Structures are given as structure tokens and as C-alpha cells.
């Protein structure tokens, strides 16, 4: 599935055009209004302090919705008026501009009109020239989008020429990705010219050229072609030489890049069981995988150098966010962060900071919160304070922390100081695993398990409906003395995939997949209210391994079974499910608002306004 372009670029002689959806542009406009308020406040502080303005430390950026940003702007305007009475009129007009931007109907023309009024206010208070760009740039809009038009020819400037060369580099990498895909499908080795081209592509990556954004995401639980994916772990070279050379190994497989050797140190407090791989290796793997399978990466646990989380917060968050950004910029679909050595409230703060600092397409590139079920967490949320040590309770706490932290996926890991680890599906009962997966899916989180898993465990995981299953050690040759990993074993990978596919066809496998789909619909409030009791019954049947009951419910829920997998952008697919639902939960829970909500969703979906839809849904 190709990504939906957030902006569109076209070049006709000397004209460059970039367009923004209404939702995107509203956020841009609110950022500009926020900046205006800051500048006016600084001016007033300078005037009232005889030339000295106390510098406010740069705050840690944090995840912020459009509504939260609007609240911050509203608060800044109010505070300005209270602190500097002479600016009350300006603060009032800024508040009116904010309201005008927010209430402008989802039309590019109306939003741009409100934005121009806000800029008029800015020009007036900052005493700056009105719209003087020498005619080289201008804004325009239609009912669907806002456009920025540049009428100069950038190819005549050093910056423009560099941009043209960058575009050529990108096209060369795109051609190499396509070449590798053709060779894989044909089962051919590259010839001498193709080998050279591949080596040249590596050099471009090392120079910082980014790969094309046509990557495959992890998709949406319940609505991707394969529900339970094998997440095949390797530091990179194994994927390049084995995984990405055989199309059979890539179906329903997530190509996971992580350092899996413990380097003879088995104390997980000293050395993480899994560690951050080389970003260059991750990018090379992405080059070879193209868009044939998602590529994910392990990042690891944050480092708190003074062993005080809040003192080390800014640096630790920036380090993790920067590592994730390096991965996401090359089309990595998911980055996994170890949530350890933090209390529950600290973990939420760290995660929200990471979300606020990372560069990514948040609809298609996920942040995963990894919880080790053998590592206690001090639960200090909501005024409570107690140590959680029970594995199942840790699993439930992980769901809550990932949700509060704004992450997209929760992963449960069972690694310990023992190598190989005890299989996680033997550290949790089947009923516990099913309940964890079910609870996570119904709050919109993707799911994943790892540690000590063997090919036969894929059947257990598939019967639980978990989204991803991390296997590394058992799919490599391993030195019995040093425990160091050797090469990947293709026959072992095929065995895992065979076990998964067989399990998915069994009654419990089909039921677990259907439960994942129902849980997703429940989260999206697109589930029919008549189907909600059946969802609860199916959960009980899967948890109790009641094949007869599961099969009966599978037949009764044939209309849900028949729904299509996602074939468009995930946010648009979600909108379409809500619009097509009969008596959805959204209609019941938001009865008074439902007609307006439905009409708004329909309008935004028709405009392909992913940004506004994501905020609304």
C-alpha cells in the first residue's frame, strides 16, 4: 500500500506548488499564532524590565493534540492580557483569531481567510511590511486544500541545484529498490553492473540520502492480510543475505533489525538482551526489503546517566527520539523502546516526550513500548505507590502506560538472565495471554510478544491473536559454547511460517483473528451495538479454547468476517468503516452529536484530509 501524500509537489517551468490539507494547515496556523503571542510577550517584558529579559529554558517538547495546542494558545493569550493590561485588546483579538481558525468549516477557503485575518493582526502588532515577498510566493486555496506557490526557478540558485541533485539521488535509490525486488521475484543473482549499482546505493545511504517513502507499514490489527506476523530478528546482514533474497520468507513477516547477541554477558541489568543495531544496517535492510515487507528496529531502554529520571529526562528523551528519527527517516515502520528503570509516572512522561520529539508519519510508523515481564515497575499513578511484580499485572500495566504515553504498540518480553530464555508463552497462561492481547487491541494498541520462542509456539501465539511474534535465537545457528548467533536458517523460518498458517486456518486461529477485528472495531466505535455481546462471547470462547462456541460465533459474525482488509491509508480506512457501519457504538455513545460527526467524517474522508480525521477520530 503506497503512502498517502501529505503534500503534493509539481514543477512546471518556474512554478513550484505545495499543498496542505485543511487539518495540516490549521496546526500550522496555530503554531504561527503561538509564536506571535510569544514575541509580543517578550517585547512587553523587554520594555518593562529596562532591557533585560529573563530567558525561559527551552522546554521538553511533548506530544500535543490540536486541541491541546489550542488550549496552550488560549492560555498564552489570557496570560498576556492579565500580565500586560495595555495588551488586553491584542490578546482579545488573538483569542478571536484562534476561535476563527478552529471554527472555520473544513474548507480550505475559509481556513485561509481566517489565517489572513490572523496575519493582518501580526503585521499590525509587529509593524512589519504587509506580504512583501516580491511576488515570488503566494497562498491560495480551494474547498479541499491550501496551496503555497513559488514562481521563481530554484534551479538557478545553489540551493535549487542541490535540491535537483538530491532528487536524482533519490531516483537512483528508487531504481535500486525496484531492481532488488525484480531479482528476488525472479530468483536471480545480480550481474556485475547490478552489483555495482547496489554498492553505489550503499554509498548514497552512508552519505545521508534517504530512501523513498514507499515502505510497508505494520498495518492495522484485524485488517491486515496476516494478523499474527513473524517478527524475524537479526542485526542486518542475515536479512540482506537470507530474508530479503527469498519472497517466501517475507509473507506475513516483519523484518526486525536488532543486535541479538549478548556478547557473553547474560546479566540483563548489565547488557540488554536485545540492543540498538547500526542505523546504516537498518537502512540497507530497508533498501533490500523495499515495500515487500515492513522493516522494524529495536532502540532499547533510555540511559539515565545520573540515575535520576527527571534530571536526565531532556537528554534521554532527545537521544531516544533522535535514534528513532534516524530509523523512521529511512522508512522503518516501527521502533521499540524498552520501558525500564522508571516508575509508572516517569514512564508516561518519557514516552510523551519521545512522541513529541520524533520525526515520523504517526499513522504508519509506530512507537512500541517494550515491557519486560520479569522486571518490576513501581506503580505510582493516580496517587498510588506499590511495586508490581506479577507478570500478568505487569502486562496490564504496560497497556495502560503505553496508552497514556501516546505510543501505538505494547510489547511483552520475557527475557531473563538465562540463555535461551524461557518461552514467554510458558511464562503466561493461554488465558492470560488472550486477555492481554484483547485488552490492548480494544484500546487501539498493536501487540507483540518475544523471548525464547520456538517454531511450535507460533501456534499458541496465533490462537491468541497477537499481532507480532519476535523470534531470533531459534532461527539462527548458535554456538553451543559461546551462545553467539550464526547465520539465519531459511528452513527454520519456513517452518515457523507453516505453523502460523496452519494455526490461522484452525477454528481457534480464525476465532482469534476475528476477535482482533472486533476489538479494533470496538476501539474505533464502528462496531455494531448488536455485535458487542457477541464480541464478549467470542473473547470468552478464545480464552477458554472452546472451539465449538468459537466456530458458532464465527458463523454468526459472517458480516464482520466478510469485511475487506485495508487497501487505502489506515486513517481513511478507519473513517470508511465508521461511515459504513450499521448502528455503530459511536452513534450510541455520541447520540446528540452523531449526525454532525458522521457528516464531518464523510466530508473529511472525501477530501482525504488525514490530519483532520486523525484528530477527530
Protein described:
By secondary structure, the protein is of the alpha/beta class. Helix content is 50%, strand content 13%. The protein is built from 23 helices and 16 strands. The chain has helices spanning 22-48, 66-83, 88-103, 108-126, 158-186, 192-206, 237-241, 279-289, 309-328, 344-357, 391-405, 424-427, 430-441, 457-464, 490-505, 507-524, 532-543, 547-556, 558-561, 570-580, 585-589, 594-606, 610-616; strands spanning 9-12, 15-21, 137-141, 145-150, 229-234, 253-257, 295-300, 334-338, 366-372, 377-379, 386-388, 409-413, 446-450, 468-471, 476-478, 485-488. The strands form four sheets. Strands 5-6-7-8-9-12-13-14 form an eight-stranded parallel β-barrel, surrounded by five helices. β15 (476-478) and β16 form a beta hairpin. α5 (158-186) crosses α6 (192-206), α10 runs parallel beside α11 and α16 (507-524) packs across α17 (532-543). The longest helix has 29 residues, at 158-186.
- CA-based gyration radius: 26 Å
What class, by secondary structure content? alpha/beta
SS strand fraction: 5-15%
Q: Summarize model confidence as the mean pLDDT.
A: 91
Terminal-residue CA separation: 22 Å
| Major sheet | 8 strands, parallel, barrel
* Strands side by side in the biggest sheet: 5-6-7-8-9-12-13-14
Q: In percent, how helical is the residue content?
A: 40-55%
Per DSSP, the total helix count is 23
Annotation, overall tally of beta strands:
16
Residue stretches low in confidence (pLDDT < 50, at least 5 long) are 1-12
Shape label: globular
Amino acid at each position: 500500500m503506497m503512502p498517502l501524500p501529505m503534500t503534493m509537489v509539481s514543477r512546471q517551468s518556474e512554478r513550484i506548488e505545495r499543498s496542505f490539507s485543511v487539518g495540516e494547515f490549521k496546526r500550522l496556523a496555530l503554531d504561527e499564532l503561538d509564536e506571535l503571542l510569544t514575541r509580543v510577550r517578550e517585547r512587553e517584558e523587554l520594555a518593562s524590565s529596562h532591557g533585560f529579559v529573563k530567558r525561559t529554558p527551552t522546554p521538553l517538547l511533548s506530544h500535543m493534540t490540536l486541541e491541546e495546542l489550542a488550549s496552550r494558545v488560549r492560555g498564552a493569550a489570557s496570560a498576556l492580557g492579565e500580565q500586560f493590561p495595555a495588551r488586553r485588546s491584542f490578546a482579545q483579538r488573538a483569542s478571536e483569531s484562534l476561535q476563527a481558525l478552529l471554527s472555520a468549516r473544513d474548507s480550505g477557503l475559509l481556513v485561509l481567510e481566517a489565517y489572513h485575518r490572523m496575519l493582518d493582526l501580526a503585521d499590525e502588532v509587529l509593524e512589519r511590511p504587509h506580504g512583501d515577498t516580491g511576488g515570488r510566493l503566494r497562498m491560495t486555496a480551494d474547498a479541499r486544500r491550501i496551496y503555497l506557490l513559488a514562481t521563481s526557478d530554484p534551479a538557478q540558485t545553489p540551493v535549487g541545484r542541490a535540491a535537483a541533485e538530491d532528487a536524482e539521488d533519490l531516483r537512483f535509490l528508487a531504481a535500486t529498490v525496484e531492481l532488488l525486488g525484480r531479482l528476488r521475484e525472479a530468483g536471480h543473482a545480480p550481474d556485475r553492473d547490478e552489483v555495482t549499482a547496489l554498492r553505489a546505493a550503499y554509498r548514497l545511504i552512508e552519505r545521508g540520502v534517504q530512501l523513498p517513502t514507499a515502505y510497508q507499514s505494520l498495518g492495522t490489527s484485524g485488517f491486515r492480510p496476516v494478523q499474527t506476523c513473524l517478527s524475524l530478528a537479526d542485526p542486518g546482514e542475515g536479512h540482506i543475505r537470507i530474508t530479503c533474497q527469498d519472497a517466501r520468507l517475507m509473507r506475513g513477516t516483519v523484518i526486525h533489525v536488532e543486535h541479538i547477541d549478548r556478547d557473553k554477558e547474560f546479566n540483563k541489568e548489565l547488557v540488554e538482551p536485545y540492543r540498538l543495531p547500526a542505523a546504516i544496517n537498518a537502512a540497507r535492510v530497508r533498501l533490500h526489503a523495499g515495500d515487500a515487507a515492513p522493516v522494524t528496529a529495536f532502540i532499547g531502554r533510555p540511559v539515565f546517566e545520573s540515575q535520576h529520571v527527571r534530571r536526565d529526562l531532556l537528554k534521554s528523551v532527545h537521544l531516544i527520539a533522535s535514534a528513532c528519527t534516524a530509523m523512521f527517516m529511512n522508512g522503518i515502520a516501527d521502533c521499540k523502546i524498552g520501558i525500564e528503570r522508571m516508575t509508572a509516572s516517569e514512564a508516561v512522561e518519557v514516552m510523551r516526550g519521545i512522541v513529541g520529539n520524533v520525526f515520523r508519519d504517526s499513522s504508519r510508523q509506530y512507537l512500541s513500548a517494550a515491557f519486560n515481564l520479569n522486571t518490576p515497575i513501581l506503580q505510582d499513578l493516580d496517587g498510588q505507590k506499590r511495586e508490581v511484580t506479577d507478570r500478568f499485572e505487569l502486562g496490564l500495566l504496560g497497556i495502560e502506560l503505553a496508552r497514556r504515553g501516546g505510543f501505538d504498540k505494547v510489547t511483552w518480553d520475557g527475557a531473563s538472565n538465562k540463555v535461551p530464555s524461557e518461552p514467554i508463552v510458558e511464562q503466561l497462561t493461554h488465558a492470560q495471554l488472550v486477555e492481554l492481547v484483547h485488552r490492548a487491541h480494544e484500546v487501539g494498541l498493536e501487540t507483540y510478544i518475544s523471548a525464547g520462542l520456538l517454531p511450535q509456539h507460533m501456534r499458541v501465539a496465533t490462537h491468541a491473536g497477537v499481532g507480532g511474534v519476535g523470534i531470533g535465537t531459534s532461527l539462527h545457528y548458535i554456538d553451543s559454547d559461546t551462545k553467539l548467533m550464526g547465520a539465519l536458517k531459511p528452513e527454520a523460518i519456513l517452518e515457523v511460517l507453516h505453523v502460523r498458517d496452519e494455526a490461522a486456518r484452525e477454528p481457534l486461529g480464525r476465532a482469534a483473528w476475528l476477535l482482533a477485528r472486533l476489538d479494533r472495531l470496538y476501539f474505533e466505535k464502528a462496531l455494531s451495538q448488536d455485535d458487542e455481546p457477541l464480541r464478549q462471547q467470542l473473547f470468552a470462547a478464545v480464552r477458554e479454547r472452546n472451539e465449538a462456541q468459537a466456530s458458532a460465533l464465527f458463523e454468526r459474525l459472517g458480516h464482520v468476517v466478510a469485511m475487506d482488509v485495508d487497501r487505502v491509508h489506515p486513517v481513511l480506512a478507519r473513517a470508511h468503516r465508521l461511515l459504513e457501519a450499521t448502528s455503530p457504538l459511536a452513534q450510541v455513545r455520541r447520540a446528540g452529536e452523531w449526525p454532525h460527526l458522521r457528516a464531518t467524517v464523510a466530508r473529511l474522508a472525501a477530501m482525504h484530509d488525514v490530519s483532520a480525521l486523525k484528530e477527530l477520530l
